[in-house]
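Example 3.2
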Amino acid sequence: MTHKVVFRPAAENDLIALYHYIATNSGVQRAEVYIDRIEQACMALADFPLRGTQRDDLHPGLRITGFERRASIAFLVENDTVRIVRIFYGGRDFPEDWGDN
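Structure, written as tokens:
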């Protein structure tokens, strides 16, 4: 069964911030390519949503999968939907309010 992938606003903001960070430090083209790859990784969760490590200690049902050893994708699987909750880059800690958006 293929799931629908939905990005929460906080995850969308994470991608925008990451794009700006990479564009500023490494150029627009590199930022575009990286963001495209991370979005593709998120969309691939539609076919295999139970990847990654389950982190019920942070939130019931939360799963986290790594991306290219630099980013972590935090998501929830709810019925036929994968909700991308946050995308953390460069070893950032999970904020206390990570799931409120």
